Amino acid sequence: MEKRRTDLAQVFDSQSEIIKLQSEIIDELFCVVCQYITAEELVSLSAIEKIDRAARIKAHTEREG
Known about the structure:
Structural class: mainly alpha
Low-confidence stretches: none
Oligomer: single chain
């Protein structure tokens, strides 16, 4: 049973690291996109709403964590 917990902890750690890296990549790519579009185009992107929602969830989680 202890071996299984260790394996699950390793999987969780690996998945967390992957998600963190993906988030950093998305942030970098978004910054690149922002350099090539106008403010009006930026505001109209549906991804902006999702980014804002993710930021609110992250902030809420960090406050409670």
